[in-house]
Structures are given as C-alpha cells and as structure tokens.
Amino acid sequence: MSGFPFSAIVGQEEMKLALLVAAVDARIGGVMIFGDRGTGKSTAARALAATLPQIRAVEGCRFHCEPENRDDCPDPCTSKRVRKMAVPFVDLPLGSTEDRVVGTLDLEKALSLGEKHFEPGLLAKAHRGFLYIDEINLLEDHVVDLLLDVAASGENLVERDGLSIRHPARFVLIGSGNPEEGELRPQLLDRFGLSVEVKTPDDIDQRVEIMRRCDARERDAAKFAGKWQGEDAKILRRIDRAKKALPKVKTPAKILRDTATLCKAVGADGLRGELTLMRGARAFAALQDDDAVTLDHLKTMAPLSLRHRLRRDVLDETGSTVRIERALEELFG
Amino acid sequence: MPVADQQAAPTDFPLADCLLAARLFANNPDSFGGICLRGFGPVRDALVAKLVSALEPLGPVQKIPNNVDCERLLGGLDLAATLQGGRSVWRPGLLQVAENGVLLLPMAERIDENIAAHIAQAMDVGALSVLLLDDGMESDETPPAVLMERVAFHCDLSDSRDLEVVAALEFMDKDRAARLPSMTRKKRASLAATAAACGIDSVRPLLFAERCAAAHARDMGREKIVDEDLQAAVRLVLAPRATQLPHSEETPPPAQEEPSPPDRESSESDDEQAIEDIPLEDLLLQAAAASIPPHILDQIEGLVRQSGKGQGGRAGSKQQSSRRGRPKGTRPGVPGSGRRLALIDTLRTAAPWQTIRRHESGQSDPSKIHVRKSDLLVHHFEERQESLTIFAVDASGSSALSRLAEAKGAVELMLAEAYVKRSQVALVAFRKEGAEVLLPPTRSLTRARRALSALPGGGGTPLAAGLIAARQLAEAARKRGQTPTIALLTDGKGNVMQDGTASRTGAKEEMQGIAKGIAALGLSSIVIDISPRPRPEAAELAAALRGRYLPLPRAQSSAMVAAIESVGKEAMA
User: How far apart are the C-alpha atoms of B184 and A100, rounded to whole Å?
Assistant: First the structure.
C-alpha cells in the first residue's frame, strides 16, 4: 500500500511543523518526537519523506551521490547517467548492530575474490534522506553515539575490519521515544535540533476523523492518495519556496538579542539552543513567506527548539514547555 | 448462517468471544494485524491448529522459534552454501518468507525486544500478521508491547476447557470477497468515546475496533453495521486494552470502592432486555465494563492510582529482562569452555588473506578456506551489572508523615542519577493491612514522580508484608541479572501480621523469620531507622537481615542516598 499522505494526517500540528522546518533547513539537525504508541509518529515521518520530490542520483552509485556533487564519494562514481529515486527513508530497527549501521567488509567479495571491499550500511542508505529511529531510548548507547556523531558531521568514517573509508552521510535524523520507558541522556537530547511532544488527540471529533480517513484509505488507497495529492503538492511547493527563500530571510539584530535573552532566562545549556532557535525561526519565517524573522516566529519555535535542552530540576515538577512559555510571557508579554 | 447459531448458546463466554475473534481474524487476516492467544493448554492447541489450517491456503504461515537471531529473521549470506558453491548465496530472512502471510510466535511473552522490534517494523510496512501464543502466567508476563499494540485481539484462554466447542468451530465466510460495510459518523463517535472512557490513548485500537465491527456485521450476514456489531468490537478489541474502568462523562472517575463489574452472564442478559432504551454509548460502556478480563482488572486496580497507563509502564520494566548477556561484539580467542565461536566474524577476518594463503599452501581449490588460529574470534557477552534499589517505605501512622517526604526525595535523587549510572529504582509502601508496589523497577523519572505523588500515609505497620513484597521484587530482579539492594525505611515497630491481624508480638516474630529468609538469600539490605528517637526494634531487624543499620532521626535525603549507595556498591563488588 502506498504511504499515508502527509496532508491527510489529522492534528499533530507541532510535529508537522517540526518536520517541515527540518526539511527546509537540514542543518537544524534532526527532530526528536516524544509520545506514546499509536500517535502517528512514524506515519508522519514516513509521509513527509514520501511527499518530497524524487532526487537525482548518479546511476550505479551505492551512495546515490548527487551528480553535481560527487567528489566525496569513495566509489569511482563516474557514470554520466542520472537516475531518479525516491527520497530515502531508512527505518533503523532497535536491534541494529554496529555492522549494519556503519557498514562492513563485503564478505562475498572477500571470500570469493580475496578482495577487501566495503559493504555500505544503513547510514549510506539514508544519505540525502531521513533516518528514523523508533524508541531511541531503547537503542544501545554506542550505536546512538555513533549515529549522532555522523548526523552532526555529515560523513561516516569507517575504521574497522581492516577497512579505512569515509563516505558522505547527510540525513535528517528523526528519533522517537516514550519518556515513560526510560530517560534519555541530556547529551543525546541536546544533539537533536527540535523536539516535539505528541499526544493522542483527546478530542472525539479528531479521533473520528482519523478513523474515517484510515477507513477511506483502506477501501481504496489510490483514490485516497489522489484526493490528497493536491494538498501534498501545495506542501511541497511551500517547502521548495522556503528553501529558495531561506538565504534571503533577514534576522534583525533585535531578534538575535531576544533569542539570547530567552535562552539565558530559561537556562538552556550550551550554545546549541540559541543556534537552533535562530535557524528554526528563520526556516519558519521562510515557510510563512515572510522576508524577515519576527518575534512571533521566535515564539512559535521556542518550545520546539529549547524544551529538551533545559536542565532538569529533580524537585521541580513543572514541565519544560511550561517553563518556556512562562519565560516568553515574562520577557515579551 | 451456521456460524450465528453456534454463537446463540455460549456455554463459556470468554471462549465464545475468543472463537469469534479467531474467526474474524482468519477471515480478514490483513485487517487485524493478528491475534494474541494467552494461556497454554489443549484448547489453545486445538484453536491454533484450526487457525493455521484456515490461514495456510491464504499465504505462508511461518513459525518463528523463540531463539531466532536477527540474521535469520532478516536474511543474509548463507554461509554453508556460499562456501560450497564458491559464490555468494543469499538466504531470505524469515520475515521475507512470511510476507503476505502469518508469523506464528510461540512463547510470545519471552520474545526478545529486538526481535519484536524487527517484526513490528515488518508489520508496519508490509502485509504481515502475527499469531502470538502467550504462555505467561503472571500479569506482568506479556508479549512485548510493540507487538500487543499491533494485534487487534487479545484473547485469554487460560480458563477454557471446552474442547468440543473448538472442535466444532468452522471458519467460513462465503462473502470473503464482499466489501466490508462502512460505519456512520455517529457510530464512529460512540466507539471513540468508549475508547476514551476506557483510557485507551492509542489510535490503533480504534481502527481495529472499526474494522472488527464491520467484519462482525459481514460475519453475521448483515450489510449494515448495527449496535450489536459495535458491542462485539468493544468486547473483543477495546475491553482487553482498558487501562481504567469505563465511566461516562457525567459521573466522576470511579473511586477505589467501585463495585467489581457485574457478572458477565447476567449483564449480557440485562443488555438484551433493555437494549431499546439505553443510548448507544452507555450500551457500549456497559459492554466494555462487563468484558474486561479479570487479569486486566487486577492491573487496573493497581495501576490506575499511579499512572493510568498500564501498557507503557509494563513494557518499560519488561524491556530490561533482555539485558543479561547482550552480545557485545567479538574478540580474538579460542572457542571452548563456554566461549562460542563467532563464525561470520572469523571468516571475515580470514577472508582478505585467502589469496595469499592459497598461494602459500600451494592449494588452488577455491572452495577450501584457509583459517588460522589467529583468525578465530569468540562472542563476547556483556553482562551489564545493573543495580536496582528497592525502597520499602513504612507509610504507617507511627512513622511520621514528614519522613515520607524525605523518602520521596531520596528516591527522586537516586532516579536523577539513574540514567547515568544505569541503575533502577523501585518503591514498595506498606501501611494499614498490606504492602503494595507503588513503582515497579524503572529508570523513568516521569513515572516515579507520578507514583510518589500518590503515596498515601497512615494506619498500622504491616512490616512483614512490606518485607515480602521487597523480597519478591529483589528475586525477580536477580533473575533479570540485576543486583538488588533493599533499603528499608521504617521505625521497626511492626504491628500487623501477614494475614492482617494486629498483634505486636506476633508481627515481630513473623518479621524476624522473613528477615532471616532474606538474609539467607544473600540479598544486601540497609535499614534506615526513621523514628524520632532510635529504638532497638529497627536495629534488631537489621541484625536479622544481616544488613546495615543506619539511625537517621533527622533523615535527610542526600545523607540517605549516600548510605544506600555505599551498600549497593558492596553488593556489586
């Protein structure tokens, strides 16, 4: 069955916004989604990847390099031909071993030809696309460290099995997890650009609408996809426009100052909070067809960019989101 | 409709519903993700055999043994064939083999979380359904939550003995090709409201319930969905997932004194009598209340107070069970004495040298592989030494209420460190007549905070019950490979015996016996005397436990944490 159309997802506005912003500016560095099972986390991520237009890649290249940008490919990558492919969406399973993620020695070639060849792993597969990790809090620590490192540097450096190779691995990292099932390390959280908290809609009408749409899709997936095609195309154009406009969006000095003041007020650790908030607000402005970042953009993006970076006060029960909203209220009214 | 006739006189209500669920699943394997059959025995065996023979004509039915590894599940290089043929031969994984078919998972409650995650992923992207055979006995022994979430029906056959009914069951749906009837907005809304009243947050059960109602209507030969179909959906899909007793919006949430749901048979006949004059939603709520399985009900009683979200919580504690001996890669070594050869990795090490070695040895036969001792790699398992601190807190009237606040503070402080130290915390409270586990072993601050905020105080001191609860947690933790430490916060003045009778001397004797039992198990413990003026009772208890005694008349959270941690370290050493 074809994927669920992105525009047909009911509610979950904050999650959709975070995914769009991450799609506009990849440097924002991933989205962490907190929420229970059955809230449409993976559906949304998958849907966005499926909505994006096909990308052009060098034919036969195992790393699906961009034809204009193939210098960092470890393979010869000389083909003149170009193929089109869907934006990669890699679902990283929980039990993934380091081998599978990073890539390893190609056993087939080694045994039959006695040659050392690199067999790309999931990181190579996700290049230029999305890497989705469900229940990231259950993933082995060393695999998580590795993923975050690659996501931040945009390249996968393999030094194992007698191999020494590096290949590009630029992807949008999307993690999901349920805080009820174990805390995440703060270092890990900080590496994610944005975070969202999703809840199942408690509004009966919304839940009924979800039932209705799922049923319609089940009865005739093609018809359902056709019905939402127009909406999805609109979103696509919006992302495209925003990507083009992004370099031109102005960030007034006052907004920069406000950003810093806010981050200081809520006690967000490190500089990453400020940088992400600024980038996020800029990408959001671009999505809104605005040519400069305003305070409203900042306010919208603040909870998404900062809530996972606040230092946790064990004895303070107040949720991070509330703390940010309170600070926004006090500072900017 | 022979099927409907069979339904008319259910001798065994839960069994009849299980059979109904099995039939709906067998006739629409793509719509329901699967079915979980709990409780081993001849009845389930017969039902499974029937289901398998009904499903086999539709697609592959693949049994997955419990010890399957990821390699076999996902496919990979078939080593034997590769080596023999001298070229790579790929073997498809079991998940590929079973595509568009059914996976049969025996002993589903023991499936490794990693394996479950792969299966769940395959279910999400492809047409794959699962048949979970749950042999769990205790209420916390259930298949992984990721799988339970994705199968529509959770059936409990533990108490079913009626083999003949199963033998008479027939899966037949002549209209399999017919379209499922669709549902009106109003009916959808009432299903959604019922789910909300049962405390079901996830959207998946809602979708399952809708399909179940539609499939049930068709099964009964109807072209329209009627109230009875909705009731069936509520019974089969929603009720087993309830995390709270359903209540309509006007009435306040049920207090603890809520009468147990009415007897099934009688409520069923009530429904039939009054079916006309009850609004649909109430009807569904009644159906839900009446068909929540007893073991779920037990959990609700225990869980509603602390979280209202049983499913997620249990998954959290369960997931730790796979911690023991997780493979941690390989390292050079010679197999034997418990070390297992890592075949693939050994070959990988040997592979680059083959041309040279072939050359050296003068043998040109490419099907022979030259492996030297230095290539050998063995599996290296990491037995993660995870610690669990079990706080057993005296919440009786004799321990001042302020002490509770300090105990809470200590638990929270330890939890704040938990994700760094890989340690877990559990909390048992005892007061009035018994003890209860307020917080099963967890690393989650969110859950702990919720459990702690609900900790009540007052009443007698059932120390014996508290000790037993702590001991059970400790033993379970050991089985999972954790190192438990019991931290007992009490004044040592037990006055309620295990059976609930109040007797100071009897309680003391009983307590000493239990404490010695705990000591005999070699469990490390610490008794923190929280009475304002330390008395001999707590010290005696510590002696019986062979644990440390720490009088803390002004118990301070941080001092307490330091003391407990030092005991925990000794236990780990």
Answer: 47
Note whether A111 contacts B196, CB cutoff 8 Å: no
Q: Do B316 and A199 touch (CB under 8 A)?
A: no
Distance, in Å, from the CA atom of A82 to the CA atom of A61, rounded to the nearest integer, reads: 10
What the block records as the tokens of A155 is 């390249």
- Contact assignment for B114 to A93 by CB distance below 8 Å: yes
What is the mean pLDDT of each successive set of 10 residues along chain B, which is 573 residues long? 40 75 88 90 89 87 82 73 68 84 90 84 86 83 88 88 80 66 87 87 90 90 88 90 67 39 40 49 75 63 36 31 48 68 79 80 74 78 69 73 67 65 78 80 75 72 86 84 83 78 81 87 82 78 85 66 75 66
Find, in chain B, the residue whose alpha carbon is nearest to that of A185.
B419
- Comparing CB atoms, the residue among A162, A200, A314 nearest residue B416 is A314
Q: Do A110 and B412 touch (CB under 8 A)?
A: no
Contact A116 B352 (CB under 8 A): yes
CA distance B311 to chain A (A): 10
Q: What are the angstrom distances between the C-alpha of B523 and each of A126, B467, B553?
A: 48, 12, 25
| Burial classification of residue B278, based on how many CB atoms lie within 10 Å of its CB (0-12 exposed, 13-18 middle, 19 or more buried) | middle
List the single residue in A with minimal CA-CA distance to B417.
Answer: A314
What domains can you pick out in chain A, each with its CATH number?
Answer: 6-52+87-198 (3.40.50.300), 247-332 (1.10.8.80)
Residues in chain B closer than 8 A to A181 (CB atoms)? 312, 315-316, 319, 444
Q: What is the 3-state secondary structure (H, E, C) of A25-41?
A: CHHHCCEEEEECCCCCH
Determine the Cα–Cα distance for residues B22 and B39; give it in Å rounded to an integer.
15
Residues in chain B within 8 Å Cβ distance of A315:
409, 412
Residue A274 and residue A263 in contact, taking contact as beta carbons nearer than 8 Å? yes
Instruction: Name every chain A residue with its beta carbon within 8 A of the beta carbon of B416.
Output: 312, 314
Q: Where are the alpha helices (DSSP H) in chain A?
A: 13-24, 41-51, 98-102, 107-113, 122-125, 141-153, 186-191, 204-219, 221-245, 253-266, 272-287, 295-306, 320-332
Q: Could you read off the pLDDT of A124-155 as tens digits, one per residue? A: 999 988 999 888 877 777 788 788 888 878 88
**Catalytic residue of the set A191, A272, A309, A323:** A272
CB B461 within 8 A of CB B430: yes
Query: Measured between CB atoms, does A223 come within 8 Å of chain B?
Result: no
With contact defined as beta carbons under 8 Å apart, do B541 and B513 qualify?
no
Q: What is the pLDDT of residue A194?
A: 92
Q: How far apart are the first and last CA of chain A?
A: 48
> Does the active-site annotation cover A70?
no
Could you tell me which residues come within 8 angstroms of residue A208 by beta carbon, excluding any fewer than 6 positions away?
Answer: B185, B188, B189, B192
CA distances from B51 to B20, B27, B157, B193 (A): 12, 10, 15, 32
Domains (range + CATH), chain B: 1-65+99-173 (3.40.50.300), 178-299 (no CATH), 328-382 (no CATH), 386-572 (3.40.50.410)
pLDDT at A18: 94
CB atoms A215 and B191 under 8 Å:
no
Residues of B in contact with A94 (CB under 8 A): 113-114, 117-118
